[in-house]
Write a structure and sequence with these properties.
Blueprint lengths: L6 H22 L19 H9 L12 H18 L13 H6 L2 H15 L2 E7 L6 E8 L2 E9 L7 E6 L3 E2 L2
Antiparallel strand pairs: 1-2, 2-3, 3-4, 3-5
Helix pairs in contact: 1-5
């Protein structure tokens, strides 16, 4: 007998798959040095002095983007609007609050349906915490709900108008 996932789990899976697709599109065009392969080592054997210097070299860590207070403020506002929609205190933000790539993958009716089904399964929630990120335009939050703890991640565009380009509601950690 094959066990079918519940409607809430199916919706969370759909949301996760769509978010992964959106993240893939967002990072596919990344041309930063971290996204490109490093050059091949030289074929010729280096001298002893060059060998010691080569051993101490560390690959450069990718540079983090500079803090962006406007992006942080927009991220907080976008999260609050999604949280209010999840709690049923506000309507789901309309399509203009999401990027074109996000809207291609999921529409606002689907988001509303996912949020309603999730709310029905986990109950009322409050924001238990936020993981601080060195990246101004992405955030992770933990919702403490009646029946579970629900991790939620959201990211906005790096530049204005700071529309939501990805949102991931992870499966909840059920309370006993």
């Amino acid at each position: 007998m094959i066990r079918q996932p519940s409607p809430a789990n199916r919706q969370m899976l759909l949301c996760a798959v769509l978010t992964a697709a959106t993240w893939t599109v967002a990072y596919a065009a990344d041309d930063t040095p971290a996204a490109t392969p490093s050059p091949a080592p030289e074929a010729a054997a280096p001298s002893a002095g060059a060998s010691a210097a080569a051993d101490t070299r560390q690959p450069a860590a990718p540079a983090l983007p500079a803090p962006n207070p406007a992006a942080e403020k927009a991220l907080a506002q976008r999260f609050q609007s999604m949280y209010a929609a999840f709690e049923g205190k506000a309507a789901v933000p309309d399509a203009k609050n999401f990027t074109e790539d996000f809207n291609k993958e999921v529409n606002t009716d689907q988001i509303k349906q996912v949020l309603q089904q999730l709310h029905q399964s986990v109950g009322a929630c409050r924001i238990a915490g936020q993981v601080r990120s060195p990246i101004s335009y992405a955030g992770s939050y933990l919702l403490q709900c009646d029946k579970a703890f629900v991790p939620m991640e959201i990211a906005v565009e790096e530049k204005a108008p700071y529309r939501i380009h990805s949102m991931l509601i992870r499966p909840g950690y059920w309370k006993k």
